[in-house]
Each structure stands twice: as structure tokens, then as C-alpha cells.
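Our consortium's second objective concerns turning raw sequence data into structural hypotheses that experimental partners can test. To show how far this objective has progressed, the report includes one record in full. It was chosen at random from the queue rather than selected for favorable results. The single chain below, 158 residues long, was entered without modification.
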Amino acid sequence: MKGWMILLGAILLPLLAAGCTEEGYSQAEVDATVTAMQAATLAYIRAIPTETPTPVPTATPIVNRLDCDEIRGTPYHSEEERVWFLGNCITPTPVPPPPPPPVSSGYEPLSPQELRDILQPLIELRQQRCASCRTQCAGDENPGTCQIICRTVYECGY
């Protein structure tokens, strides 16, 4: 805005001065008027506020979290945070160990019922761990990776 004001003053003031001398004003009167008008124009131009550019906000870097409870149920900040969470925070619900198998005397073979009695607590433990793993994977942003961990560690089928 200031630029066009200066250009306008530079063009109009000499024209005004030329017209005044032809109308019968003395050169001293014309010079005094031009000087006063130049001063007034400069004062007006200086009073116009200059535009300052709006600062561009800088993005705050996102820091990876290292707290399982803080991350759980929220979107991951980065791939590294997701990998850390899967490696450190996916744990099955603790299940008490199965009771020890009954002690047999000697080397006599077990009956099918005895074998079922021994294996049933282990089967139930695996089923509980897989169910816990499935629950955690269902809420995961990338369930495929979680399922791979469950299949590898607990041999869970999907």
C-alpha cells in the first residue's frame, strides 16, 4: 500500500506544482505548498501499519510412549511404538499352573482316563491363554502381528 502512495505522490506533486505556477502563484508559494504536501504524505504513509506475516506454527514432534497402560486402547504414535507395545505389553492373563499329575507306581501304562486327567488341565490352560491372547488382539490396531505372536508363543489357531 505504501508503494503506490509514494508513486502517486511522485507523479501528482510535480503536476500540481506546474499547474500552480501557471495560475499566477509565485515559485516560493508553490515550493512551500509542495514541501508541506510531501511532509503530510510521508506522515500519512508512516502512519499506515505494515503487515507482518503470520508465523507458521511448527509441528511438535511426537514422542513414543513407553507405558503399556498409556498406549493401550489408543492409536500408536509410530511403527516403533507399536512394535514396542506388542513386544512388551501383550501378556496373557496369569493362570495358575495345573495340578501335578497323579503319581503312578512303577512303569505301568496309563489308562485313557488317566491320560485325559493328566492332559485336561494343560489343554484348559492353553485354551485360557489363547482366549486371553485373542481378546488382546481384538483391540489391537494391527491384529495380524498380534495373532502371529499368539500362534507362535501359545500355538493358538485363528
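The partners drew two points from this record. The mean pLDDT is 77. The radius of gyration is 43 Å. Both points have been shared with the crystallography group to help prioritize constructs.
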